[in-house]
Amino acid sequence: MICQLFLSFSLAWLLLKCRQNLAYEIPNVDMEMLNERGFEVSIPDEPGMQRVFYMLQVDGRCPALMDYITQAANGSWTSKQNIGLQNNDKLQISVLVQYNDLIYEKSETRVILNTRLLTTQQSISRIISNRTNAEECQVNLSSEKPLKHCKPASSIVSNSQGTCKGELLFEDNFSGAQLNRSVWMHDIRQRMYHEEEELVAFDDSPRYSYVREGHLHIVPKVASEVTQGVYQLGDRCTAVDSPELECSIAKSSFYKIKPPVYSAQLHTRQTFSFKYGKIVVRAKLPKGDWLFPYVMLQPVSTHAETHYANQLRIAYARGNAHLRSIKQEDISGNRLYGGMIVWQKQEAVQLIKERLNAKHYGDDFHNYTMIWQRDKLTLMVDDEIYGEIYDGLPFFNEKCFIIFGVTVGGFLNFDDNILMNDVKPYKNQQPRAALSFWQSRDTWASTWGKSSAMIIDYVRVYAD
């Protein structure tokens, strides 16, 4: 938007003499990736070509890359750019060619996917000069809208808005009567599979998530029964890894029972994602034994959760009111964590910072902030910095989307290696962990109540 206005002003000085309107088509743009050294775009030279102007935008980001070329070299009009392109970047290419004293325009859009280039949109060539009389034409590209001056941000967003540092890119105050389903999508699937098993199934029922009085509520519920019948989600299932495992449980399966807990998980994968910026979530975390909140970002290209897809965890605290580690450290809901989980060398690596509070983080609302920059991850609670992380950032080299949810258990979330024996009602790698958890429900279900919901007041993302 801003870049298009700048282009209009930049080309307003071009005055053209119109001759006979000859048909001309700008060739398709050739593009070559130069790895970390950048990339180059080019079109072949043809008789009659006089000048070429390129404007290149990565994910709508300003300032745009511009190159004005007055002479072909080695049979082509080539522009080399020293900026590297990354996975899932969208490159918009606008080309203006002066051919036999007429100016033609063409645009293309390319998407970088696993180092391959995909052309997703392409326009046909068109003359952009306006005839004032039969003999003379003048290009008029001025705009009534003023240029917007700001300090450019490093943030890249999926909807190409908010390119000024500090500008609000995304906001939801949950002030409507219902959840905005044009923004948020529900997961409908179970998490009781593979070695990072979580003892929950996600659904979009209003029992498990709803908006009320300006707050989003995500409410886990204990299932009424788990042993009878067959669990089948059918076409409703939103499996991200394995439909066979996420969407159904066969009757009389020795290793599985129906999910002991139902909850909700929402995300913006299809509607909003960003790379670099500041996200602020005002929330009250869930309170209850073995509950675990998801307030996090996940890269758009990572769908599988078999081995913990890389995650930027904005904030989490275990739901337990009383829980100590094998070293007698307080790891209850009084201890806040934030940072990242990366899957490296066949194991989940945690790069986490923490802060101990006098009260459980499920007792009150707090502002949880993550500032994601190229070289640093900053974690804050109520405007107080409690940690900075410099490692692991290369694992997050693309846009990420927002995830809110409440899960139960989990082998990493409640690791046997840090807990005393006989504290947790199931064991990591236990074939029938879900059944053991369910059979011990008298020890944990009584700790759940009105405070077991995660309540979110708002989420805001700012350009950085």
UniProtKB/TrEMBL annotation:
EC annotation from Swiss-Prot or TrEMBL: 3.2.1.-
Domain CBM39: 24-118
Gene Ontology biological process terms in this record: carbohydrate metabolic process; innate immune response
Extent of the signal sequence: 1-23
Keywords of the record: Glycosidase, Hydrolase, Immunity, Innate immunity, Signal
Classification via PROSITE patterns: CBM39, GH16_2
Gene Ontology terms for molecular function: carbohydrate binding; hydrolase activity, hydrolyzing O-glycosyl compounds
InterPro entries linked: Beta-glucanase-like, BGBP_N, BGBP_N_sf, ConA-like_dom_sf, Glycosyl_Hydrlase_16
Residue ranges of every copy of the GH16 domain listed in the record: 152-464
Family: Belongs to the insect beta-1,3-glucan binding protein family.
Record protein name field: Uncharacterized protein
Organism: Drosophila virilis (Fruit fly)
